[in-house]
Amino acid sequence: MxxxxxxxxxxxxxxxxxxxxxxxxxxxxxxxxxLAAALVFGAAALLAAAAGVRFPLLAMLAAQGAVAALLGxxxxxANWWIPLHIALPPAAAAATTLPVPAWVYLAFFxxxxxxxxxxxxxxxxxxxxxxxxxxxxxxxxxDRSGIAFLDVGSGLGGTLAHxxxxxxxxxxxxxxxxxxxxxxxxxxxxxxxxxxxxxxYGDFWKxxxxxxxxxxxxxxxxxxxxxxRKACAEMRPGSLFISNxxxxxxxxxxxxxxxxxxRRTRLFVWRLH
Length: 273
Hints:
The protein is an alpha/beta fold. Helix content is 46%, strand content 14%. The protein has 9 helices and 8 strands.
């Protein structure tokens, strides 16, 4: 069961181990790879000079990927960067040695761009809510029929589908600006339902929040202050604004729900006045 924590005293900016706010995730990932390469290949060069020990290139590339994954996590990157870090050095080496057609690289780049569109534009990487978080959200929804819920950055639509099945009389909407994620979630919900879900493609900054009783987001530290101000300006008194994992500096949540999942997810809940 989720655990409700005491809200922090108002007026004190919250603290925590949120991802780095100064650089986009793509820049942090690149820096992690460069630093890992310097550490691994530098150490290999020292060992070769001092003791004549030489390592296979594939082993060093694998070590670079592992070190980059550790550094990326230390720098605050999300867990989904780990397999990308590990795979990147061997893949880059293979790309320079194997006769891969040029269009493959272009196609791979376009797929990454369509999935991680928001990482470059809004500093919002792809985060996916898990089932335990869905259940905790369902418990936070107002206990009345006909509620209106909006998922800002709805990803693959899993949160919307779960909540809509739990509350068939409610109206559930999502907005997503990453083209491939929107297409996949639209197709998924079109085929599997439920019927009380509506998806929109577009910029959530242009989305009117006033029709909704609950607005939920799982974004990054970067947009949270401005999105919180937008929610306060547009949402009706008594509405709920819920952020997965990311706080709003200077605006402590009215309620914090700790989800008993592996990453100890926290839902920050503001009751708007």
